Amino acid sequence: NASKFDYDLVVLGGGSGGLACAKEAVEYGARVLCLDYVKPTPAGTKWGVGGTCVNVGCIPKKLMHQASLLGEAVHEAVAYGWNVNDRDIKPDWKKLVKVVQNHIKSVNWVTRVDLRDKKVEYVNSIGSFVNPHTIKYKTKQGELKQLTAQYVVIAVGGRPRYPPIKGAIELGITSDDIFSYEKEPGRTLVVGAGYVGLECACFLKGLGYDPTVMVRSIVLRGFDRQMSEFLAAMMTERGIHFLNTTIPMGVERTPEGKLLVQYRNTTTQTDGSDVFDTVLWAIGRKGLIEDLNLGAAGVQTYNDKVIVDHTEATSVPHIFAVGDIIYGRPELTPVAILSGRLLARRLFAGSTQLMDYTDVATTVFTPLEYSCVGMSEEMAIERLGADNIEVFHGYYKPTEFFIPQKSFRHCYLKAVAEVSGDQKILGLHYIGPVAGEVIQGFAAALKSGLTVKTLLNTVGIHPTTAEEFTRLSITKRSGVDPTPAS
Ligand code: FAD
Ligand code: NA7
């Protein structure tokens, strides 16, 4: 009997997953309360409702990526005959930060209005468990409140990690700070070569700064190796520096106000140091379970993540988790949103549809973007065996690259497929312009059982780069050079 509880659903965390779940649940008549609170970063950055994606993730990242691509486009425009007077074009960092932050504030506003309209109760406070059905939080006035809920959804997401070395917290910043950073970043050390690190280094380079990426082991661990190495090579070609197999040892401020970073190359076992204006940690994220008092609810965790089953249920049947806080799932906004929505439908609308976490497409927003869906070549070999897969691949030359004589050395794509029958496609990988836009449609096709036969029977849209997927004919096994003649 739901009525014995104050709420049908309490959602802890108002980010992508939590808000999607809360808004969907009220559609089916549930009484919903959502708690969201952001602790300021060590550098003092704070933001509003909406979570990581809107405030310090996907959205400001894509806007800075776009700003950086536009700088490149101005130079290309000259080649196309545009008269651009000042060719030494420089971005105004402060203005960029201002317009990005203005956009974010408008999204925060729309989110709050939306919650009010949909009658989701929203409280700006940290929620934690008192017992499996009871949540407590402090009001703005400091009053402690308790409420009961039939179901609880944990959607608290994560925050960037800092390395446990001298000066890291006091002197370094993270992706939580960069999009509102008042100072020009200047010469920047980006520590970490996951996609957040690579993307930040790339937009900084595009905006005219001088980034160095410190790589502990390999770039983009977990992604297709060949594509990842292509990305690193493309970044090097564009003047981004890499410190390979290197770890940071400490940061201190120099008398001139710069940051002196000590580091160690773990291959050569040699120590080195360099001076930077900004140090940005992009060494991964930790789940925000610390304030939840999960012990009081009996929810099981692994490291700093919540363990769930295929229904997103935790070890306590009426407590669920969605989004980045789940152990072992992709940390992506659309994943958090869809799993939150589907969960609400199962809880309040009698649905049985489960979230399918397989074949989730993703994009790394480097200047030539990398997008993929399905298996990497390594994963396909591991799962099916090298003899049972066929890899189709090719380099291509985007038409729009010719006039500005842009490098297309790393424009490359491949399809990983089964070797026999109609050759079911297991994974698609693409490096080139607007990769996310290209792969999104193919992701739906792959989910519908796309085969090489279908791909090659699909008429391309000319002249696009996406059409290259419809004319892949060279297999890796053949050893034929996949470079186009013209
Ligand atoms: P979040 O959005 O992090 O929301 C959780 C909220 O809960 C936060 O506001 C948090 O402060 C709050 N909270 C925590 N503890 C409590 C508590 N006890 N009580 C109340 N509130 C609490 N994904 C993509 O799909 N595409 C991208 O291009 C992309 N780019 C990214 C770029 C960067 C730099 C980063 C950092 C991430 C990016 N992501 C991207 C990932 C994406 O942002 C996350 O997957 C997504 O935001 C996860 O949503 P969530 O609901 O799980 O958590
Ligand atoms: P990732 O993808 O976990 O990458 C973290 C990177 O940082 C990776 O290259 C790590 O190297 C490196 N790392 C981790 N710890 C250290 C230390 N202590 N020192 C130096 N380098 C280190 O995290 P991201 O922040 O890029 O992205 C996290 C998620 O957020 C991502 O899934 C997105 O969806 C959003 P390693 O390969 O472990 O040697």
Automatic annotation (TrEMBL):
> What are the recorded Gene Ontology BP terms?
cell redox homeostasis; cellular response to oxidative stress; glutathione metabolic process
User: MF terms per GO, please?
Assistant: flavin adenine dinucleotide binding; glutathione-disulfide reductase (NADPH) activity; thioredoxin-disulfide reductase (NADPH) activity
Q: What is its main location?
A: mitochondrion
Cofactor: binding comment: Binds 1 FAD per subunit.
Instruction: Give the reaction(s) catalysed.
Output: [thioredoxin]-dithiol + NADP(+) = [thioredoxin]-disulfide + NADPH + H(+)
Q: What is this protein called?
A: thioredoxin-disulfide reductase (NADPH)
EC number, UniProt record: 1.8.1.9
Alphabetical keyword list = Disulfide bond, FAD, Flavoprotein, Mitochondrion, NAD, NADP, Nucleotide-binding, Oxidoreductase, Redox-active center, Transit peptide
Tell me the function of this protein.
Thioredoxin system is a major player in glutathione metabolism, due to the demonstrated absence of a glutathione reductase. Functionally interacts with the Sod/Cat reactive oxidation species (ROS) defense system and thereby has a role in preadult development and life span. Lack of a glutathione reductase suggests antioxidant defense in Drosophila, and probably in related insects, differs fundamentally from that in other organisms.
Q: What's the name of its gene?
A: Dmoj\GI11388
Record-annotated disulphide pairs: C53-C58
Question: Which organism does this sequence originate in?
Answer: Drosophila mojavensis (Fruit fly)
